[in-house]
Specification:
The protein is α/β, with parallel strands linked by helices. The chain is 30% helix and 29% strand. It is built from 9 helices and 15 strands. Strands 3, 4, 5, 6, 7, 14 and 15 form a 7-stranded mixed β-sheet that branches. Helix 2 packs across helix 8 (251-267). The longest helix has 21 residues, at 106-126. It holds the Pfam family ADH_N. InterPro entries: ADH-like_N (IPR013154), ER (IPR020843), GroES-like_sf (IPR011032), NAD(P)-bd_dom_sf (IPR036291), Quin_OxRdtase/zeta-crystal_CS (IPR002364). One of its GO terms (cellular component) is cytosol.
Amino acid sequence: MRRVQYERSNGPGVLEVVAAEVPVPGAGELLVRVEAIGVTLSAIRRISEAQPLRAEVAGEVVAVGDGVDGYSAGYRVVGVCDADAYAEYVLLSVDQASAIPDGASAVDAVALMRSGLVALGALDTVAPREGETALVTAAAGGVGHLAVQLARVRGASWVVAAVSDESKAGFVRELGADEVYTYDQLHCGKQADYALDGVGGSDLGNTLTGLADGGRAVTYGSSGAIDTEDLLASGKTLTGFRIGRLAQRDPARYEDLRQEVWQHYASGLLRPVVHAEFALDDAAAAHAVIEQRTNLGKVVLVP
């Protein structure tokens, strides 16, 4: 089979496709013939830090290890692969796997599951109330474009979207955003009751600027410095969110969110958008799209 690996010599690291043996599933594992792989910023960061290549994958089960119940060859599944995920065949822990419903493609599955779970989990954490105003940052990205739609599903009366470039405004408006700003313009728009922050970093302060007094923000982006005096003076709150932590601490709730994502997809209320599909040989180009923040929706590798 073919697999992408990260190589670093004296110069910058590179992604290259190599020949590898098809892995053998161990206890509690599925061997999956991969049809689609989701590319995320967190995966790119892990690679640059020489950590295992972890990513969301979707495809067909071709073999199962000992102790696996509920799956057999022929099942179509989506889940997070913990290592060597950019490959034609991967091992997927059975507790990381979720069945793909009939009618859903593998590409839609990787565009929906992890990103949709992050967006929906962040919404749950911020506890939206009917009729409130929502702010979504990184709104054109893999998570953000789903968060814009889910905020409306969960009762937002007005959705403000923040993007890195004004050229993305039309895209997020088509998804349901009422106002669109770049991060440094957030003080100009309608102040939101709550924010779902996917950008973090130096722009986290701008996200809080876009909140009304007493507003709540949940961030699933990278960490960044904030002005705590502003939080105190205006009664705003900021909560960090990680979907992996929720999966470990409350697997029942995690499963509920997973089912809800599929329900909204089946009803047509949640529409995943794929920016582009890349071959394994073009993994570096897929990474560049994410790093340069030019994507509109999800970036996917298709072996």
